[in-house]
Write a structure and sequence with these properties.
The complex is a heterodimer of chains A (170) and B (280). Chain A is built from ten helices and no strands. The termini of chain A are far apart. With 280 residues, chain B is an alpha+beta fold. In chain B, helix 1 packs parallel to helix 3, helix 2 packs across helix 3 and helix 5 crosses helix 6. Among the domains of chain B are: 46 residues, no CATH class; 142 residues, Phosphorylase Kinase, domain 1 (2-Layer Sandwich). The chains are: A mainly alpha (170), B alpha+beta (280). Chains A and B meet through helix 1, helix 2, helix 3, helix 6 and helix 7 of A and helix 1, helix 3, helix 4, helix 5 and helix 6 of B. Bound molecules: zinc ion (ZN).
Chain lengths: 170, 280
């Protein structure tokens, strides 16, 4: 059972934990849970299902280590307010797309910008862009409605952009 | 959809850029983009960011991890749902990882929950005819909880309104589970669904606390109240109590203390009739 989606599971765990050893711990626990309660049985291709277990295991793991509060706590309702104002200036005052892309060519810069994002944003960007999950699959993994997937994704991108621009200052 | 303004356009841009927008909306949006440089720039920015993230490293699982997982877990997945194995999978005892001695215990413990979840998964009503122990009941509850976390199964009736959830059970069960919202205490009610536990159809209410989902199973039980009692099971917590002839089992990956607090709040809400007027 280990093979089919192991890379996806590990990639997510790496981005969530930001550490190779922690990622392995989380993954091992996640696989135990997956096997214990389902015996590997599931419908569909099982990737979203496995990623949801990895994610759940991670949050439990992080909480047990007290790494939880500041980074994980997050309120979509208040974030919505910021998004509304952010939406207004998107594309108007920021760097132009071509320039942004130029800066983004620096892989290391992108990686550290992503790692600095709040968990909620980091995970949704990883699921969307690196795992190439559909909105529906993301909704399954994260456990939120489709509308939330969309709005959170756009806030995540906006935040990433601010992060990239901030890091680019000499 | 006739003419779209910028506000509407911005709302749809993410889905459009991600190829998730339906055709009518996409066409309307494209029409707007043709005439609006600002929104067009916003789309290009979004795409640039999307591409940027795709340049970030993709971490592939190291071969050592792959090998370790393979050694840790039974060799073959139980793919044939039609023939759920009751016996324990053969444990490759010799190759179990040394680094995880805690997990070297016998695999036979796993046979029951696996069988239980499989039986649930394929809708089998017939399970083990023997008397089920408390442990197997707990395993079944945890299995139900985990299964419900697959989004599609979390709730059959999604509502934070206890007055909607409660009547939903009418006619589906031969008893009326008490339904209480605890949103004010930070345990909002998300909905309800039917589940099968110990051969019978039972009510499951879903609550949330921070990132954690709680399944609250309710079915008629013995007389006499029982105070909340905590049980742990491989990373999940269960709290059991009995009140007014109903058995309650709360299951979550939330920590035991807070789950117990949830139980106390439920009992409090049941006692405080003024705060929770009977449903009509
Ligand atoms: Zn516009």
């Amino acid at each position: 059972m280990a093979s089919p989606h192991l890379d996806a599971a590990y990639n997510l765990a790496r981005w969530l934990t930001r550490d190779p050893h922690d990622a392995e711990d989380v993954l091992q626990e996640a696989y135990l849970r997956a096997f214990r309660f389902f015996g590997g049985f599931r419908g569909g291709d099982g990737r979203a299902w496995l990623l949801a277990i990895v994610r759940n295991t991670f949050y439990t793991w992080a909480e047990q280590r007290g790494r939880h509060q500041s980074e994980v706590e997050y309120d979509d309702a208040t974030a919505g307010l910021h998004a509304a104002e952010a939406c207004a200036d998107q594309g108007l005052h920021g760097t132009d797309p071509a320039q942004l892309l130029l800066r983004a060519a620096d892989q290391q810069l992108i990686e550290s910008a992503l790692l600095k994002l709040p968990l909620e944003y980091r995970e949704i960007l990883v699921l969307r862009e690196l795992e190439e999950l559909s909105y529906k699959e993301i909704a399954e993994v994260v456990g939120v409605p489709l509308g939330t997937v969309m709005s959170r994704l756009s806030r995540a991108r906006l935040q990433l952009r601010h992060q990239i621009e901030a890091m680019d200052q000499p | 959809m006739n003419t779209m303004n910028c506000e509407e356009a911005r709302e749809l841009l993410p889905a459009y850029g991600d190829g998730e927008l339906d055709l009518p909306h996409a066409l309307a949006l494209e029409k707007h983009l043709d005439g609006c440089a600002d929104c067009d720039a916003a789309l290009r920015t979004q795409r640039a960011l999307s591409q940027a993230v795709r340049k970030a490293p993709y971490h592939r699982a190291p071969d050592t991890l792959r090998a370790r997982l393979r050694a840790q877990l039974p060799a073959e997945p139980i793919a044939e749902a039609a023939t759920p194995p009751i016996a324990a999978p053969n444990a490759p005892a010799a190759t179990l990882p040394v680094a995880q001695p805690r997990r070297r215990r016998d695999w036979s413990r796993w046979a029951l929950p696996i069988a239980a979840s499989l039986a649930l998964a394929v809708g089998l009503n017939v399970m083990l005819a023997t008397q089920r122990s408390q442990q197997s009941l707990r395993d079944e509850l945890v299995a139900g909880h985990v299964r419900s976390l697959q989004v599609e199964h979390l709730s059959d009736v999604a509502s934070s309104d206890q007055h909607t959830v409660k009547p939903w059970f009418n006619g589906k069960l031969d008893y009326a589970p008490p339904v209480r919202d605890l949103a004010q205490q930070d345990f909002p009610l998300l909905g309800g669904r039917l589940d099968y536990i110990a051969h019978r159809q039972v009510a499951a209410l879903i609550y949330r606390h921070r990132k954690h989902f709680i399944n609250l199973y309710i079915w008629p039980g013995q007389d006499g109240d029982a105070a909340p009692d905590h049980h742990g099971s491989e990373g999940y917590n269960l709290v059991h109590w009995r009140r007014d002839g109903m058995e309650y089992w709360a299951v979550s990956d939330l920590n035991g203390e807070e789950l117990k607090q949830f139980a106390e709040l439920q009992i409090e809400a049941a006692t405080d009739k003024t705060a929770n007027a009977p449903n009509t």
